[in-house]
Amino acid sequence: MMNLVRSIAFLIVFYSVTVVAILVAVPIGLVGGRPAVRAIARGWALYHRWCAAVLLGIRTRIEGAVPSGPVLIAAKHQSMYETMELVAILDNPGIVMKRELAEIPVWGRLARSYGLIPVERAGGATALRRMLRAAAETVAEGRPIVIFPEGTRVPVGETPPLQPGFAGLYRALDLPVVPLSLDSGKVWPRRSFVKRPGVVTMHFGEAIPPGLPRKDAEAKVHAAINAL
To answer: Of 40, 78, 194, 204, which is the most buried if we count CB atoms within 10 A?
Structure first.
């Protein structure tokens, strides 16, 4: 029962401020441009961290060296929690996300202004080229790129194969890949409203060099992101 109460409190406190933040970000973004939107996004992510810690009892333990600069971060995806945490932890990351999210009124405009990287899962070669152009712009800005190579959130214990988008980015960008394993699903279950208190471990592994054959790179990444 207490976890349900905590989850309701989180819903009210976090999302009420989120609505206000979005409404404020639109005019500020028009005046201050992309730097202003990114500053608001980081503040929003830090506020999410505070709400998760205080209201839900969820905290993060970071293991390994946090990467910076142009690098491809291949992350396990179990919940919304790590998406928000990565915005707080990294330096303005370009996160590869479903194109549908970029089409949400107001929010989608802010997401594009921030510099997120939309991708159409069934868009074929044209969609891949658009994603690669956006990724190249991110690299040119000196920012890290985050991709969830399994394609979607998965329950704890599931290890689906990597989606083709990862191989396309790896080959085109010629960047080292830092794998990120995590266990957020144990406290923030997929498709569950009720969250549980606990510590989320986020482990940044050793960098995988660019230029490996596709099968070798995919095998190393798949093993590393599923190490926890």
So the answer is: 78
CA 197, 81, 49, 91 torsion: positive or negative?
positive
Q: Give domain status of residue 115, yes or no.
A: yes
Q: Would residue 52 count as lying in a domain?
A: no
CA-CA distance, 196 to 70, in Å (whole number)?
A: 35
Q: Which of 226, 225, 228 is nearest to 180 (CA)?
A: 225
| pLDDT at 29 (0 to 100) | 82
Q: In the block, which residue shows the tokens 């594009």?
A: 112
- How many domains does the chain fold into? 1
Q: How far apart are CA 147 and CA 153, in angstroms?
A: 12
Alpha carbon separation from 130 to 10, 102, 124, 162 (Å, rounded): 36, 14, 10, 20
The pLDDT assigned to 165 comes to: 87
What's the average model confidence in pLDDT over 191-217? Answer: 97
